[in-house]
Amino acid sequence: MQLYHHPYSWDSQRVRLALEEKGIDYTSFHVNPVAGKNMYASFFRMNRSAKLLVFQNGHRIIYNTIEIIRYVERIWLVSSGEENIASSGGEVAAWMHRIKQWNPKFFTLSHIPKRHRDYSLNGGSC
Fold first, then answer.
1. What is the DSSP letter of 3?
2. Which of 26, 72, 82, 116 could cross-link 77 (Cys pair, CB 3.0–4.6 Å)?
3. What GO molecular function annotation could you give as one example from this UniProt entry (predicted)?
4. In whole angstroms, how large is the CA radius of gyration of the chain?
């Protein structure tokens, strides 16, 4: 499984949290569309729009954050031998609803260097 993302992206952080919580192994590919970093031809063949977040498992490619999290949940349920796969759907939906209410600045801005963080918090004025 591969996750193509920008590490400061809020959606990326949601998906990585789900993958880590379930203990699912994946390969992380950091992509920076602004700087064009790691945007190779293979990435564009898989994702013609070049939008992030992209999750790939074999031939299956998913772009939507919530769909990726649901897919991760299904993978975890099947691999854990859980008999009642449908029963956890409500829990996952409730968890995703809670995450949507989080303020992303607490997570994203904590990883940005101080000089850029101050710029962001001041609305773009130094």
1. E
2. 82
3. glutathione transferase activity
4. 16
Closest CA to 55 of 78, 41, 35, 75: 75
Distance CA 117, CA 120 (A): 5
Q: Is the pLDDT of residue 125 over 60?
A: no
| Domains detected in the chain | 2-121 (3.40.30.10)
How long a stretch of residues is the chain?
Answer: 126
3-state secondary structure of 93: helix
Query: Three-class SS of residue 66?
Result: helix
- pTM score over 0.90: no
The continuous run of DSSP H or E covering 10 comes out as helix 10-22
Give pLDDT, residue 86: 54
